[in-house]
Write a structure and sequence with these properties.
single chain; alpha/beta; 8 helices; globular
Length: 358
């Protein structure tokens, strides 16, 4: 999203050259080349998304970065705006970086950026997974906070949607972004602006220029559609209606009561690609258990333990792209409550995917 306009210089054509967030490289999954297109697409589309019902803990790294109280409050409000849509994810602020999935810095001069969804899990707990490099209290700064959290929830840039039909004036884009306040080399401009996502990375066939995940662009950088060549794309300052619909598709409200999964019980997973099933596990004895899937399917399974009324990550397994089943071997304790969440990437074989506890 854009910086405050008072920090944005004027280009030679007399238009404002906004500054943009710089998304870190996205981790590409290593998948077998013989996977079917449908199976490959389902894995790529879902791989950065959290399992619904996850409690995402974020830590504001303000001690070393000197962020103001107003800056910190704006980040909290941005998380709450996403939560108020009615999604199944929960957000908790924590004091210790080691207890967080999302670590937020406020280093000036380092731009605003975020890792995408579950890619943050591969980053050391001593490092940031998100940064805000400018004032968040202006309208554009508020939008920046919501945009970067959108990345953290697993969503990509909207202007890189292959269905947008945007034809760029490539050289003008490179020259504009190489100038202040961005000062980007060509490869960074290509990664963040010109590179189109593959069709397998997006859902549906529509482009939403009002999405909070869209960048604003001044007139002249886009050749076609003609409307945006003449007018540019204005700053999307709010989470759009399409954003709200899309995020609830991935993270719908959670049911309060869960069915229990019992030992030696097999439960069919009657799920479409991207959907999820959730079960409670309440062991009657302390011992080693095995939890796993059956059938030809690609899934991610995550086990949480309830601690002081809140679910804490225990362990998980992702078998996507492999012709094996996800398996967890864990010691569970009598009297404790666990929750197992299973998101289906795809069911690629003839049989029905199922889940079992041994």
């Amino acid at each position: 999203m854009a910086l405050a306009h008072n920090e944005a210089p004027t280009s030679q054509e007399g238009t404002t050259a906004p500054a943009y967030c710089a998304q870190p490289p996205v981790t590409e999954p290593i998948l077998r080349p013989d996977l079917s297109p449908d199976r490959l697409s389902a894995i790529i589309l879902s791989r950065t998304k959290w399992v619904n019902g996850t409690v995402l803990r974020y830590c504001l790294l303000n001690e070393s970065d000197g962020a103001s109280a107003e800056q910190l409050d704006e980040v909290r409000k941005a998380f709450q705006d996403w939560k108020d849509i009615g999604i199944g994810l929960e957000f908790r602020e924590v004091d210790r970086p080691s207890e967080s999935e999302i670590r937020i810095g406020f280093r000036q001069g380092d731009g605003s950026w975020s890792y995408v969804g579950r890619d943050a899990l591969g980053i050391s707990t001593r490092e940031r997974t998100m940064n805000f490099g400018w004032d968040l209290t202006s309208p554009h700064g508020k939008a920046t906070a919501r945009h970067e959290i959108g990345h953290a929830l697993g969503f990509a840039h909207e202007h890189q949607n292959p269905f947008a039909g945007i034809e760029w004036d490539d050289e003008k884009v490179y020259v504009t972004l190489a100038s202040p306040p961005n000062n980007w080399p060509r490869e960074q401009t290509f990664h963040n602006i010109l590179r189109k996502l593959s069709i397998s990375e997006v859902e549906g066939s529509d482009w939403d220029p009002e999405s909070i995940m869209e960048y604003p662009f001044p007139p002249g950088l886009i050749l076609r559609p003609e409307k945006y060549h003449r007018e540019g794309i204005p700053d999307p300052l709010l989470i759009s209606e399409n954003d709200r619909t899309y995020i609830k598709r991935w993270y719908p409200p959670m049911e309060d009561k869960l069915a229990e999964l019992h030992p030696f019980q097999s439960v069919e997973l009657d799920l479409a690609a991207g959907e999820q099933s959730d079960f409670a596990i309440v062991p009657s004895e302390t011992r080693m258990y095995e939890i796993g899937t059956l059938g030809d399917s690609d899934v991610v399974i995550v086990l949480f333990e309830e601690v002081d009324g809140e679910l804490r990550y225990f362990t998980g397994e992702d078998d996507s792209g492999e012709d094996t089943n996800a398996r967890l071997k864990v010691r569970l304790f009598d009297g404790r409550r666990y929750v197992l969440r299973t998101r289906l990437y795809s069911a690629w074989g003839p049989g029905q995917a199922a889940l079992m506890l041994w």
